[in-house]
Amino acid sequence: MQVLKIGVAGAGVMGRNHARVLTDIRDVDLTHVFDPDALVAKGVAEAYGASPVTTAEAFADAGLDAAVIATPNRTHADLGVALLERGVHVLVEKPIAATLEDAQRLIDAARANDRVLMVGQVERFNPAVEAVKRAIADEDVISIQITRVGPFPPRMGEVGVVIDLAVHDIDIIRHLTDSEIVEVQPQLARTKAEREDTALLQFRLANGTIAHITTNWVTPYKTRTLQVATKAKFVVADLMTRQVTEYFGQQPDGTYSTRGVHSWPNEPLKKELEAFVHAIRTGETPAVTGEDGLRNLEVALRCLGE
Q1: What are the distances in angstroms from CA 172 to CA 2, 101, 210, 256?
Q2: Which of 228, 226, 283, 237 has its CA nearest to residue 260?
Q3: In this predicted model, what pLDDT tens digit does every residue of 166-179 receive, in sequence order?
Q4: d(Cα 196, Cα 187) in Å, to the nearest integer?
Q5: 18 touches 122 (CB < 8 A)
Q6: C-alpha to C-alpha distance for 303 and 22, rounded to whole angstroms
Q7: DSSP-assigned letters across all residues of 223-272
Q8: Are 173 and 203 a contacting pair, CB within 8 Å?
């Protein structure tokens, strides 16, 4: 099997994680790391046996088969289009881009050049989310509630909690229901940040499911929980410990039976990158398409009134 030459653009926290995991995937060779900070690029590249580059042009011209884009959101489209036009398959971190127009540019470039475009919605590959998806298969979902809260991040980016955090959960809701969000009722607040750092988001989906996301940067501890109510059961998942519990068989006195739902101890990022490689090798539709990324971004921007 031909070894895929892959590069990572952006050597921040996520880019470093991608570089680390790529070196552990069979028949993949991490060949280049791009970051405009020469010292950062050199340090990460040397750690994983790759070559550092400090410009987008050099990265696009590096002769790659595939690339991971983990740079700031505003740079995703220009870099992604440049890579796709050179025949490079692209995995772009969420959100797919900063604007819907830029997201569409990426989708169009991938289609025009017959390349894989996948969006890095890593929670899709969380074993707990996969376990919930299995547990509610063939069930009529009534409601979904997701809580994703934690302390203020030490390094603030250019976005608030809706783009940084809630995009994960918008994707989970669409993934679990196989339906699209048609109504949005956002409540936003700002306490410490230049943009919103607290959001309560309510949705109605085309299939009738209602959903709620609570997300913030003002809670002193991290919580990542998912609750799904169907007509026959109630499923609760901790996305950090990956413990999943199913409540079912309600009795006349209101009591339920419970059982644990097995979730495999896989690293979500490795599963995501393996899915990207699989789509490249087989030509199959990637697990999270550019259109998925566009829809997730569209809902997030509606929540922000943009």
Answers
A1: 33, 23, 13, 26
A2: 237
A3: 999 999 999 999 99
A4: 10
A5: no
A6: 34
A7: EEEEEEEESSEEEEEETTT--EEEEE---TTS--EEEEE------HHHHH
A8: yes
